[in-house]
Amino acid sequence: MSKIFDTFIAPPCHEQIETLYQDDHLVLINKPAGLLSLSGKNPQNLDSVHHRLVQIFPGCTLVHRLDFGTSGLMTIARNKAINAALCQQFSQRTVIKKYSALLCGHLDDNEGVIDAAIAKDPALFPLMSICAIHGKPARSHYRVIERIYQELEDRTLLPLTRVQLTPETGRTHQLRIHCQQLGHPILGCDLYGGRLISGTEQVPRLMLHASELHFVHPISEERINARHASPF
Fold this sequence. Notes:
The chain is mostly beta strands. The protein has three helices and twelve strands, in the order ββαββαββββββαββ. The protein is about 10% helix and about 35% strand. The strands form two sheets. Strands 1, 2, 3, 4, 5, 6, 9, 10, 11 and 12 form a ten-stranded mixed β-sheet that branches. Strand 7 (about 120) and strand 8 (about 130) form a beta hairpin. It is globular and about 50 Å long. About 30% of the residues are buried. The mean pLDDT is about 95.
């Protein structure tokens, strides 16, 4: 097994974390794009969701993560017991996650399913790859919201499709690599083709936002239906 060296240095994130809900057991936040979920091993990557929140909520832990470039809803457990209870919901796939995204090009179908196993490949790090032999099962649903044209600086029109993505599984980079597999990468995705079309090189961020999170509160047993509108 090849040793993996992560040379990524995150640029400073000046946006604040938005706290949407909190009680004695958990915190629900809106993560800004361009902020790590967890601090990296490199001391230059100290700033993260966890680093910021543990100073406000001592002992808090992340139940799940969002990619550095992804914004949106995250659940934070305020103690180990709550973390274990929420992690169980994620592992049993009873948590429903929905994402808003802008994809390059116009999709032919209004909805569909991407079923493609995803594998780690140390030689390609940090990229993941589609691999039916060594990959773990991964399944994502997509639904078209609208097909639009965005005018670029040179007045050319860039075709884009706004979609809602619903992952059944939670593999690393799943939605990003599945959209690439579909032939319509997420706009602004530097790893999986979202900056290759002329005029997309300067897109300010990954156009992927965790817009809905549905789960059961471990203590009250009430259904939490969290929604946060996409900023793009």
